[in-house]
Amino acid sequence: MMENKDRCGICGRKGQRLCPALIGMICTSCCGAKRGSTLECPPRCIYFPFGTEAYDLWLKVDGSWMPKVARYIVDAVGRLQFDRVLSQMSSSNGKNKDQWEIALPAAVYYMLSIDRDSEGKTLADRWEEEGWKGLNNDERYMMKFRRKSLPAIFEIQKVTDTQSMRCADMLDPERGPFTMFDRSLGRAAIPYSRFLTWLTHYPHFSRPGGGGLMIPHSISHDYFDELKRRARVKRNESSEKLQFYIAEHFGECCELVTSKLSAFNKRMISSIDLNVCRAFYEVVSDLSEIEDILNSKPDFEREEREIEEGDPEGTVYYSWLRRGESKEIEASMPATFRYDDESQGVGSLGTLKLYTNLLVIEMFGRMKFDFAKNMVKRYFGHRVKFSHEKIEDFSDQIGEQSETREEGRRPSTPLEEKDEVPIEIQQAVLEQYYRNHYTNFLEDNIPALGGLTPREAARDPEKRPELVELMKHHIHQMISLSREKGVTINLDWVLEELGLDELL
Ligand SMILES: [Zn+2]
What we know:
Layout: H1 2-5, E1 17-19, E2 24-26, H2 28-34, H3 55-77, H4 79-88, H5 97-113, H6 123-129, H7 137-146, E3 150-159, E4 164-169, E5 178-181, H8 183-188, E6 194-201, E7 206-208, E8 213-214, H9 217-230, H10 240-248, H11 250-271, E9 275-283, H12 287-296, E10 300-303, E11 316-321, E12 348-355, E13 358-364, H13 366-380, E14 384-393, H14 395-402, H15 423-443, H16 454-459, H17 464-485, H18 492-498
Antiparallel strand pairs: 1-2, 3-4, 3-6, 4-5, 6-7, 6-8, 9-13, 9-14, 10-11, 11-12, 12-13
Helix pairs in contact: 3-4, 3-5, 3-7, 4-5, 9-11, 10-11, 11-14
The structure holds zinc ion.
């Protein structure tokens, strides 16, 4: 009796591990040859590569599956055809390694189970007829799911631990949320990031094919619409049509991400006023009269600084602040850039320089410039005489730099480029800054919400989904910023204020 209990419940040789499916001992070769297929393995068995507790074993199977399958395909279609499809599945401007990591699985899945021969059969069908020659039990079990792989645009909704995430597929919304295993994504993942890739669903977790291509929020709506237009998918049509379209045009769909992003960045840059504007005035009164005015107005603060290149020796510099009558300019600025009382900080308008008979104002952006020129008339009147102005456009220079950046821009913070500040102070300043920023945001009319304030949109059943989408973007940006600066900026209070429980 004792002896039987120690023996493998299948072949009768010496049992080496406890098998929860047999409720008894099993030898390693019977376990390896029968797990998943003839044995009904529970998900928590540490010897079952497709359960939740043996992910390292799964990685081992994956490591042998992909080369075997790629070799089978090359033998069946020829090297030339394989390479042709591989380059079709990668974007032509994807010269980097990442692109090939996504393109290889895309090509393999496409040739294995999407592309059909003249008899309507896929390579997987043929191989199955041959009894999966060359594949072991684990690899055959893996094939069962991998041959059903399809393109996906998945969104990370919650990072559970370093290897698992809760995700949803925007191309297959009916599936609902699922668990994804991926260690490199798990380490770096930021909630609400979206990726284009191929996806395989196993019974207890899902896997992306070679990571994924990030689709930034700034373009994701536009990108999705364009995909549907290209695939001729109408409203309410099943998502399958779109999945199959992407399967065939995967390389083009990757390229579309790059081109949409570059177009977005160009639009963004052209909408930002990147002009450095200067106006030159001749001082026709006594210089001391000008100095008296500058000293009596809270708008101006004298600065002690080195003489700038090109300025004559003896030039005196003043910061021109949004204070005193110059605060009026804020009436025409978006709420999030205003400061309601001075304890929150004072915005800048530009610089004023004074040198014997010359007064120069220097502003960044035409709006501030036009405002400042009117203020010069108001404050100095006939004491100065306009001479000329000079406007320099910097958008071309910025354009080149941001081509390579992942996402457009973020509002600059008071601590940009001041990394020597202790982290606790940075934390406190940034927290206060974003507390003010989002307090204003809640009451601000947002173009992306059709001009409603976030509070109004939260109460409007039609606008609410757009608000959820917008807040996902904001949360994503704040987490990126927090990681970059090594601080924590939490937007939960904004979500609570808006009652967006689905994002908490
Ligand atoms: Zn055995």
